[in-house]
């Protein structure tokens, strides 16, 4: 069963008016946790989806959606989240942190969307509106 942090982050990562996200949301609705891996710098939540849900086809071999960051209790710096979609199916959620150690009892305080500070810039900044083209890799 997904915990509250995983559920909220996945809902944000899968939000938006896009056919690909609609397919992934249908997978999410039936998804279960296969296993969790903790590291000192975050966690991985591996997902299992039912065999009868639609897959993203055609689609890239791997798709990564990673425009959600969050303030988390016990962390000085924000945590980032990446959703990996492999062969058209939800695979795993990764949480990563920098210059901190994952707390024993983390609580999601304030999740938010990010996008590049400027076109072509690797620095990410908080955005009030989701940049869906960038999040899905469609932006040039």
Question: Describe it for me?
Answer:
The chain has 140 residues and is an alpha+beta fold. The model has no long low-confidence stretch (mean pLDDT 93). It has a seven-stranded antiparallel β-sheet with strand order 1-2-5-4-3-6-7. A hairpin with a 6-residue loop joins strand 3 (62-72) and strand 4. The longest helix is centred in the first third of the chain and has 12 residues, at 19-30. Helix content is 19%, strand content 39%. The protein has one domain.
List keywords for this structure.
19% helix; 7-stranded antiparallel beta sheet; 39% strand; 3 helices; alpha+beta; 140 residues
* Number of domain modules: 1
Largest sheet: 7 strands, antiparallel
What's the arrangement of strands in the largest beta sheet?
Answer: 1-2-5-4-3-6-7
Q: Structural class of the helix and strand makeup?
A: alpha+beta
DSSP strand tally: 7
Distance between the termini: 37 Å
């Amino acid at each position: 069963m997904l915990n509250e942090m995983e559920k909220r982050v996945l809902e944000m990562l899968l939000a938006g008016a896009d056919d690909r996200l609609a397919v992934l949301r249908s997978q999410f609705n039936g998804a279960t946790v296969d296993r969790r891996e903790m590291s000192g710098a975050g966690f991985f939540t591996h997902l299992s989806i039912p065999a009868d849900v639609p897959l993203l086809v055609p689609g890239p071999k791997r798709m990564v959606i990673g425009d959600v960051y969050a303030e988390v209790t016990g962390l000085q710096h924000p945590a980032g989240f990446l959703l990996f979609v492999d062969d058209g199916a939800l695979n795993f959620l990764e949480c990563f942190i920098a210059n901190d150690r994952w707390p024993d009892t983390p609580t999601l305080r304030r999740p938010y969307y990010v996008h590049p500070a400027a076109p072509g810039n690797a620095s990410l900044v908080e955005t009030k509106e989701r940049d869906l083209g960038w999040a899905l890799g469609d932006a040039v």
